[in-house]
Amino acid sequence: MEPAVPRAIPRRALLRRAACGFGALSLSALLAEETRLSATSSSHNPLAPKPPHLTPRAKRVIFLFMHGGPSHLDTFDPKPRLEQDHGKPIPFKLSLSFNPSYKGGLMKSPWGFKRYGESGIPVSDLFPEVGELADELCVIRSMVSDGVDHGSAILQMNTGTLNFSRPSFGSWVLYGLGSENRNLPGFITVKPSLYHGGSKHWG
After folding, report:
1. Are residues 155 and 199 in the same domain?
2. How far apart are CA 187 and CA 169, in angstroms?
3. Residues in CB range of 65: below 8 A, 6 or more apart
4. In sequence order, which ranges of 55-200 are alpha helices (DSSP H)?
5. What is the spatial distance between Cα 99 and Cα 88, in angstroms, rounded to a whole number?
């Protein structure tokens, strides 16, 4: 006698029978939500994807902030005045955040700079290979901070403020561009820092 061949179960029947029908319940909720969204305008959903001002070429954003990385003075931002005043006393009063016993003077970068590509972007000798790609880089030198220490500067970079709780960089991107997700985070952080501002950076 030949063994009985198991009969294929239709997917909808499987959803109805399996797990006490919770699969069918989930499916009906998803389909109802999809129908309701398509019948209403995006103004009813504040996180609905919004049309941008310009046609975007980027598909996604990965923002790498390397806390403790090399200084801008040693990478892409040469300071001729600092070269000129190397070794001289600091020409301004130090903030209370600095150690009052500090007696050092100004110090130029120990690395030389060369201009690369048609753009002529100066790149430190630390990164000769990066210099070969200079015309593919966007270097911003206009960013400043109102704080004098790392914690306040980092918080201002990520939220726009030194010490208050404000929406973070990821929150503003989600608010401005919207998201196709309704049940998943619109942005994530990977191993965020628990000091120098903590959760204020990604909240």
Report:
1. yes
2. 10
3. 154, 157, 158
4. 80-84, 128-131, 150-159, 169-177
5. 18
Distance (Å, whole) CA 179 – CA 45:
10
Residues in the chain: 203
How confident is the prediction along the chain (203 residues), in pLDDT tens digits per residue?
666 666 777 877 887 888 778 788 878 877 777 776 565 554 567 777 777 788 877 777 777 777 777 888 999 999 999 999 999 988 877 766 666 666 678 899 999 999 999 999 999 999 889 999 999 988 888 888 887 777 888 888 888 888 778 888 888 888 877 887 777 777 877 766 677 777 787 77
CA distance 55 to 182: 24
Question: Would you say 106 and 87 are in contact if contact means Cβ atoms under 8 Å apart?
Answer: yes
Longest CA–CA span in the chain (Å) reads 100
Whether residues 90 and 133 share a domain: the answer is yes
Residue 123 and residue 76 in contact, taking contact as beta carbons nearer than 8 Å: yes
pTM (whole model) above 0.70 = no
Encode burial over 103-127: b for 16+ CB neighbours within 10 A, e otherwise.
Answer: eeebebbeeebeebeeeebbbbebb
175 in a domain, yes or no?
yes
Domain annotation covers residue 119: yes
